[in-house]
Amino acid sequence: AAGNSKRGRSYDAFIGGIPDRISELEQTLAAATDDSTKSVFRDRIRFQKNYKEATDAVMPRAPIERFTERLQYKFGDRLIQILFFGRGHTGGDAVVFLPEEKILIAGDLLSTGISYLGDAYPEEWVRTLERLKKLDFETILPGHGDPIGDREKIDHFQAYLTDFWNQAVQMRKDGVEADEAAKRIDMTAHGSHYPDIKEAGVSIFGVQRVYELMEGTAK
Asked: Hey, which CATH number is domain 70-215, 1.10.3720.10, 3.40.1350.10, 3.40.50.2300, 3.60.15.10?
């Protein structure tokens, strides 16, 4: 519900912790002795304060129009389709497709890097992307990063999600606690496609999410 979008683990991780981060940065600034370091931390503090101000100004509202699979609009000669292929990054990942231009605006269903999985449905996400691939597009505008022209990047991400899901599920079946599982899960096999992967270990939020999905407690 719109009224609940400023609650929960993901909100706390990205937004709720900003005051603490600002406090830590201010302490570091106070201890800094050279001007260049002070300048860096002043900029970081300014960024965090602006980010907090911007997010506080966002007022969630309920939608005025709803759909289950497709909405379609025509603006002049441009056809715009809003499509839902299933759950993925969240429970409501709609995409915008411009069929004439062959452009897919994928939102957070796709990213140039590794996506946040704290609210995700990893197993379903793979199937959602498989349905999405049936569209005739040449350019993807992802939720984060530069435009994507290589459709194989979708295959790479599907492989990553499948591997992550399988490893996390097995950890849960073996009785491994989520924090320990996050240290053990090894995604280095995907390092050629995601250079940020240097060693074993993943975000605890994604592991917690898989455990919740298995336990039936995910929201």
From this structure: 3.60.15.10
